[in-house]
């Protein structure tokens, strides 16, 4: 799958001038409120007809303003999931799912309903109406309905934004299964860094209608020089590893990274499972001697690669710990006091790590 997007469009005083390429998986459109994420996904959906540009999916030209090509929304065969589930209130869950299937084009075989129901864990809800579902359940049904229309691309615009933290946590594992077990490419709009760190393969970082960085999630979320549009307090490292072992009494998982081991609170992931860890840079401290008597479980030794100063007096230090790179966000004063410089050996003390199944 290849998706090429390159659009320019004026909306009142706002100018969208954005493009990216995706070769499948989950592409996150990420940025602050008002950066243009929704406008861009609406252009991909066919809800906005761009002033200029092209959108091409697998060689199929959906928009080319120079050639006056504009394939209307209903002929693009995309699935949509919005902030609110927008289910039909008078239909049961089963009825809503059948409606999705009804939209699958003739000759296309959508995922079987049983498989989608199982994937999203909604089997026990089939006879209920939307009014009797939680927000998270409604959203899972909306995703199921979209999947059953055999979409070529799934567009999700802040699908978790209307849910409370508990419901978000409940639905994220289903989104991960969707990413890992279906072949449907996803464009996912979010302003929440932990969601993007957890779900995305590629990130398109937007600011003021422009794309300011694009690339693999681990690069975009951690590279301070590229992150001009991103709230630097949100920066962090995204590392891949596998679950090496468990310590059930302490509910801790041991994650083997490229050259380090991390201890992470978690008890639901199988041994050998590939995982991602997200380490916010603000939760990493640096020491020039190995600290003793600390409650932190994870202390990695490494060497400083770069130090980038911000205008707010903070600095982001990139530390290579063998083959794993960790970023620490510390004060400029600490940098001076510890005489931190590129090449200097340091210990990275990691306060929190989030573990995500992969
Ligand atoms: N139809 C319109 N006419 C004029 N301005 C518009 C229109 N639609 C959107 N805008 C403006 O375009 C800018 C980008 O909006 P957009 O919804 O794409 O951003 P966003 O990144 O998705 O933000 P949020 O996360 O808050 O949804 C905003 O300043 C918005 O006010």
TrEMBL record:
PROSITE patterns named in the record: ABC_TRANSPORTER_1, ABC_TRANSPORTER_2, MOP
Membrane-spanning segments: none
Pfam families xref list: ABC_tran (PF00005), TOBE (PF03459)
Keyword Transport set for record: yes
Keyword ATP-binding (UniProt): yes
Keywords, alphabetical: ATP-binding, Cell inner membrane, Cell membrane, Membrane, Molybdenum, Nucleotide-binding, Translocase, Transport
Protein name listed in UniProt: Molybdate transport system ATP-binding protein
């Amino acid at each position: 799958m290849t998706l090429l997007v390159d659009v320019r469009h004026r909306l009142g005083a706002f100018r969208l001038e954005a493009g990216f390429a995706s070769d499948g998986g989950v592409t996150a459109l990420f940025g602050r409120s008002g950066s243009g994420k929704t406008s861009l996904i609406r252009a991909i959906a066919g809800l906005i007809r761009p002033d200029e540009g092209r959108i091409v999916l697998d060689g199929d030209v959906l928009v080319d303003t120079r050639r006056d090509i504009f394939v209307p929304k209903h002929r693009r065969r995309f699935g949509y999931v919005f902030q609110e589930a927008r289910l039909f209130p008078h239909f049961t869950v089963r009825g809503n799912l059948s409606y999705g299937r009804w939209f699958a084009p003739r000759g296309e075989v959508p995922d079987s309903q049983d498989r989608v129901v199982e994937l999203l864990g909604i089997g026990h809800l089939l006879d209920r109406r939307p009014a009797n579902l939680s927000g998270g359940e409604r959203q899972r049904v909306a995703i199921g309905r979209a999947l059953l229309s055999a979409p070529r691309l799934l567009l999700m615009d802040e699908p978790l934004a209307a849910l409370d933290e508990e419901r978000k946590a409940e639905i994220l594992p289903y989104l991960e299964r969707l990413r890992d077990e279906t072949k449907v490419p996803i464009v996912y709009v979010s302003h929440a860094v932990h969601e993007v760190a957890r779900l995305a393969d590629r990130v398109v970082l937007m600011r003021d209608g422009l794309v300011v960085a694009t690339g693999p999630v681990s690069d975009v979320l951690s590279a301070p020089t590229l992150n001009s549009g991103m709230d630097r307090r949100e920066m962090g490292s995204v590392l891949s590893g596998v679950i090496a072992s468990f310590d059930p009494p302490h509910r801790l998982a041991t994650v083997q990274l490229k050259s380090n081991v991390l201890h992470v609170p978690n008890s639901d992931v199988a041994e050998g499972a590939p995982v991602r860890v997200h380490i916010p840079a603000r939760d990493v401290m640096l020491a020039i001697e190995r600290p003793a008597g600390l409650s932190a479980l994870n202390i990695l030794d490494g060497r400083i690669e770069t130090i980038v100063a911000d205008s707010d007096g903070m600095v982001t230090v990139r530390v290579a710990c063998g083959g794993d790179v960790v970023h620490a966000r510390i004060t400029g004063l600490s940098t001076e006091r510890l005489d931190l410089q590129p090449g200097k050996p340091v210990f990275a003390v990691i306060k929190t790590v989030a573990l995500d199944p992969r």
